[in-house]
Amino acid sequence: MRKLKKTSVGILGATGMVGQNYVRLLENHPWFEVRAVAASPQSAGKPYSEAVAGKWQMPCEVPKEVQGLVVEDASNVKKISEQCELVFSALEMDKQQIKDLESSYAAQDIPLFSNASAHRSTEDVPVIIPEVNPQHLEIIPEQQKHYGWKKGFIVVKPNCSLQSYITPVAAIQAAGFEVEQIIVTTLQASSGAGYPGVPSMDLVDNVIPFISGEEEKTELEPLKIFGKIQSGKFVPALKPLISAHCNRVPVVDGHMACTSLQFAGKKPGIEEILQAWKDFKPEPQRLKLPFAPERAVIYKTEENRPQPRKDRDLDKAMAVTVGRLRPCRVFDYRFVGLSHNTVRGAAGGGILNAELAKAKGYF
Amino acid sequence: MRKLKKTSVGILGATGMVGQNYVRLLENHPWFEVRAVAASPQSAGKPYSEAVAGKWQMPCEVPKEVQGLVVEDASNVKKISEQCELVFSALEMDKQQIKDLESSYAAQDIPLFSNASAHRSTEDVPVIIPEVNPQHLEIIPEQQKHYGWKKGFIVVKPNCSLQSYITPVAAIQAAGFEVEQIIVTTLQASSGAGYPGVPSMDLVDNVIPFISGEEEKTELEPLKIFGKIQSGKFVPALKPLISAHCNRVPVVDGHMACTSLQFAGKKPGIEEILQAWKDFKPEPQRLKLPFAPERAVIYKTEENRPQPRKDRDLDKAMAVTVGRLRPCRVFDYRFVGLSHNTVRGAAGGGILNAELAKAKGYF
Amino acid sequence: MRKLKKTSVGILGATGMVGQNYVRLLENHPWFEVRAVAASPQSAGKPYSEAVAGKWQMPCEVPKEVQGLVVEDASNVKKISEQCELVFSALEMDKQQIKDLESSYAAQDIPLFSNASAHRSTEDVPVIIPEVNPQHLEIIPEQQKHYGWKKGFIVVKPNCSLQSYITPVAAIQAAGFEVEQIIVTTLQASSGAGYPGVPSMDLVDNVIPFISGEEEKTELEPLKIFGKIQSGKFVPALKPLISAHCNRVPVVDGHMACTSLQFAGKKPGIEEILQAWKDFKPEPQRLKLPFAPERAVIYKTEENRPQPRKDRDLDKAMAVTVGRLRPCRVFDYRFVGLSHNTVRGAAGGGILNAELAKAKGYF
Amino acid sequence: MRKLKKTSVGILGATGMVGQNYVRLLENHPWFEVRAVAASPQSAGKPYSEAVAGKWQMPCEVPKEVQGLVVEDASNVKKISEQCELVFSALEMDKQQIKDLESSYAAQDIPLFSNASAHRSTEDVPVIIPEVNPQHLEIIPEQQKHYGWKKGFIVVKPNCSLQSYITPVAAIQAAGFEVEQIIVTTLQASSGAGYPGVPSMDLVDNVIPFISGEEEKTELEPLKIFGKIQSGKFVPALKPLISAHCNRVPVVDGHMACTSLQFAGKKPGIEEILQAWKDFKPEPQRLKLPFAPERAVIYKTEENRPQPRKDRDLDKAMAVTVGRLRPCRVFDYRFVGLSHNTVRGAAGGGILNAELAKAKGYF
Predict the structure, then answer these.
(1) Which of A319, C143, C304, D56 would be D52's cystine partner, CB 3.0–4.6 Å?
(2) pLDDT band at residue C2 under the 50/70/90 scheme
(3) Which candidate from B183, B187, B219 shows the least CB-CB separation from A247?
(4) Which candidate in C207, C243, C248, C259 is best for mutational testing of the D interface (most D CBs within 10 A)?
């Protein structure tokens, strides 16, 4: 019977907004089934549906299989580890606490896929976008050896702000063109700040040209993603140099990125870039992973697309859409990228990471 | 008696949104008083308050002095020219028609200050931001000679999209630093598209990464503004090279610009730029023109400013506010600029142009 | 083979917003498949994907099966009638023209299910909400006889504004309590006005307390729905008397209704109303029609629900959710109702009407 | 010298949103000048401009006269009472604490005008809308006698939700028609909840049909306002009976009210109501108080007005605008009312109360 063969899964931080998205997205997942939900001590002991009463933000009802699961205290590592074979972390607490707690799960033989930023700079923890750097999973054995973990390991996903333009850039680089410099301005959705997040008084008829810590993440995380494994550690790439200006706009979901690119060496023609996006078929698409969008990059030909509300939900909200590829008067080219920040850029991205790791036999 | 000495003023396109702003802003103006309102033949013959019934968009009532003015057909150049000494043009019609009609007024001895884009590329019509290139008014005698106009002339203002960052750039250049390259992403308000303008279905929970023709204007008009008069014509500057990405966001008023700058030659320190903005006191401020903001550039020290709703109305909505000056990882510096698009960037800018020309004795 | 057994379907007005919703919602429908798309002469002759290029508003791509269908001129009744067994009308033209055109299809043996208001007041055309007055389909034979149609007939759905509270009211009446008076204030979504619809300048940071013709429809259509068939015509009910105040609010989808009820005769207790909603299992639910929501009325127990964005998509966006049932200081009770206006209140409602008619053997 | 004759004024809760509005609105007030600003102990000791740095929400800069005022701890009643002759209270703390603290100021000979709800139900504290029940100030001597206060007293203003329709109702009643029942649905602005207030995730593309405690206030406070003084206490009116449904909508400022009225006895014609509104000239208008709008009720004849963004700022944002007067199918008449919630409904209303009390010689 198929159902018995699904991997049992736990969600840490299950009552927060990213955690709720995990719960929602894993309903009817072909490979995974939620068996444990964990959160802070205040929620512990309550049935999940009660723990999220009044703060359930998803546009659906709590999935039936999860409604009755009793919320555990996320710090009960041992107990939770006995209930599941894999854990998604959407923890919201002090950075060092998250780091330690996530490591504890790995130490209990649990593969942990995290949305938190805590371990992103840990030198042997891979920051994965499955379409961009699937080969970075190869560090897992070295990571396990380093920490003395047997079957457990930690894989993280990058910040939601960079998902909208890094995959298109990676596709161009995969076609043999080297991007030297990027100046990008992001228009990011309200949901990116969680709940309660940004006050409505700051976002009705307004835009906020600042998101704390976001520009640094947007500028530096891609360098690790484009980096190499050397002696069991990641050595970040030196290029492309990225400058990011991050804005919060009155949009519910969907981060948009106005991107200007300067190439080093050979500069592609517009047709070559379009072809590169069309031909880009990285590992998640080749492996037909359940959460992988059919096309890794979708180019919209209309002159005014992509748009957050109209394009964010394409292909299970996992698509990265681009549009408006055109010459830049200062750099070589410009385009607009878009991806759904709470699905592709958060829970959906975490699930795809886990699918990739499973398909490649890491657990 | 003072009132008798005011310059009598006509407004072309007085029933449209920019025209309504002229009507609103000129109420109680110390130098000008509205004596003629002109629009399309459909509106002609009606009292102004009746002509705008149901389409008055201003957050106030129609000023009493204008309510009863009978709307003229804007093509009755002769009649309107007899009623006023100066004309503001907010015409919305075919570009060539606007060009011809505006010239007809100048030929009738009327100084005409236009918001329309029709004459912006005419080689001897100045595109003026009073804080940036007031000296361009010097072309007026040559313009009059060229077309055989005695007292009439045409002055235009630039597109609303560039007002939010060109004045700060000009202030830096005035301090002796040469800007070589600019990559700017604008977040522009709904009102910039007029009325009915952008459908709400495109702007509730959404952003549109495209505004027809806007990027070209934003990239090219500054070069004329920074240009020189040679042999009775404007020769555009070659620098700074500008790349603009223009977005429409769900904001009522206020265009914002995320700007990255690369300098040629000597690169200023951050303190030098801040000082340049603080010290910048161009002609409108020195002349204390009625519509000139007290400070030509206002720097906001809070990390998350300027914001459209909170800063657009500063100093009669004529202020240009900047914030977030910081190094750029790719270029030299970055900042955010903001100005009110329908006041500073439209009717208010036109009025300031007229004030400058009057103060300098051009009429 | 199953596919061959599906009913072939045509959509009139297929390029408009309601038409696009029909196209989207009928993808993979178990009973129906789209075989013809019709629109105005301007669109005719183009493949559907080309005809909607730049105006496709759905949050998905054009379904593959429809992309290549060549758009017909909707007035080619004969040709379209040969291509399909059933037609959905989302025509947007002059009311009399719609009326005549819809009748022409019926005359060609085509059962026609309309979203348009044209035939709502035709005395032998039923206005159906399947959960409320499925028995009104019984007029079909009389309608056919009256107009001399053999197999064709016309069924319409009511205005989208009343769907959010009429089903809950019907459920209470089905439990034996007679509602005498209703005062309702609706907060209606932008999409209800179609595209381009309401200008963003009227809806960003604003509310419009008026929708042309909407209050009359909201007040009168329910009386026909609650009415009876007598001598081949509908005789409207006299009660409940309804007063509706209709507002447009900055919400994309989802009409909300703040409703106060006064009962005639026996007044139920709060528990009786909740029970009535819980127990309400009308024909679409008993027949398990594909588009019928599992529960005809969903009561949300949270004190601040239903909310448009969070509840409109429940159960295929076909659910009617209610909340905040409480005593009214003037009438007997108050509650808030919500339904998705472009799905439940438009295309989805039309599809459910067709499913009901098919399940009951009318074609 | 005029300046010396102004009444010196203190603001309690000066750093909160209502307090900021007091600071903003009192700039250049002809009768009052701000001499003391008080807030919580955390803000105490800082210059005002520093205390509000990063949380100043007003669309202007901090007025120069207030920037340097050192914030006092609001509980230093004695010290603050020495610095000013009158106090505005915008305190945000525990209700009982507010009540006690406000009374302490009165005990120190300070007339106190409050925005807080704490004293609204105190039986000898008047809840004043100057256009509606100015005569309620007559309780002041009795209040002073009761509590043993010499010159101090307490006057409060009602909740912001009811200002938009109670003045129009009072105008009708002043013309001799008795309103028996009111069913009202309010659409209230985000700013009504203060800052941070409502999360943007709850208000972008959404409406919340619930505001905690608001319906009770909206239903009951008018009865005190329409009540009488008997034996030194207020006896609430029994009529009109009010049922209020309060919604939060994505609007920055401006509360709107869709109102249905049932008359007792003589029912006016539509023209009589319009005339009543036109003729309504209560005390603040007769006395030409500085903050009184010229007309107490403004009727908008356009079919789709009043609208929050377009009408809230009329006449110093102190106007109450109404529109859409029409018959109601259930009650007698319906109309839409609007007022600016943070000006007319909060700080501006408080200032008008103080002006009234001063003009009538209560201090």
Answers:
(1) D56
(2) very low
(3) B187
(4) C207
Tokens read off for A226? 């484009």
Dist. CA A69–CA A84, nearest whole Å: 13
What confidence tens digit (pLDDT) does each residue in C227-255 have?
999 999 999 999 999 999 999 999 999 99
Cross-chain Cβ contact A313/C252 below 8 Å: no
Residue D158 tokens, joined:
């009602």
- The residue assigned the tokens 């500028």 is A219
Burial class (CB in 10 A: 0-12, 13-18, 19+), A229: middle
- Residues belonging to chain C with any Cβ–Cβ distance to chain D shorter than 8 Å: 181-183, 185, 187, 202, 204-210, 219, 241-243, 245, 247, 249-252, 256, 258, 260, 303-310, 323-324, 328-331, 334, 336
Taken in order of first residue, the domains within chain B and their CATH numbers are 2-159+347-359 (3.40.50.720), 161-340 (3.30.360.10)
pLDDT at C1 over 50: no
Positive or negative, the CA dihedral D189, C212, B207, A57 is positive
For D4-18, the pLDDT digits (tens) are 589 999 999 999 999
Phi, psi of C350 (to 5 degrees): -65, -40
Distance CA C290, CA C311 (A): 20
- pLDDT greater than 90 at residue A29: yes
Q: Percent of chain C scored above 70 by pLDDT?
A: 99
**D107 pLDDT more than 50:** yes
Which long-range contacts does B304-307 make (Cβ < 8 Å, 24+ apart)? Answer: B304/A208, B304/A209, B304/A210, B304/D54, B305/A209, B305/B336, B306/A209, B306/B256, B306/B336, B306/B337, B306/B338, B307/A202, B307/A206, B307/A207, B307/A208, B307/A209, B307/B256, B307/B338
Residue among C59, C309, C314 minimizing CB distance to A310: C59
**Residue of chain A whose alpha carbon sits nearest to that of D309:** A205
Contact D307 C185 (CB under 8 A): no
Task: Single out the catalytic residue among B84, B119, B136, B255.
Answer: B255
**Residues 6 or more apart in contact with residue D319 via CB below 8 angstroms:** D293, D295, D298, D311, D339, D340, D344
pLDDT per residue as tens digits for the range B211-254: 999 999 999 999 999 999 999 999 999 999 999 999 999 999 99
**Dihedral sign (CA B206, C346, A58, A134):** negative
- Please compute the mean of the pLDDT values over residues D61-73 and round it to a whole number: 96
Q: What is the mean pLDDT of chain B?
A: 96
DSSP secondary structure of A182-202: EEEEEEE-GGGG-SS-SBGGG
**Residue B3 predicted with pLDDT over 60:** no
Q: What percent of chain B stands above pLDDT 90?
A: 96
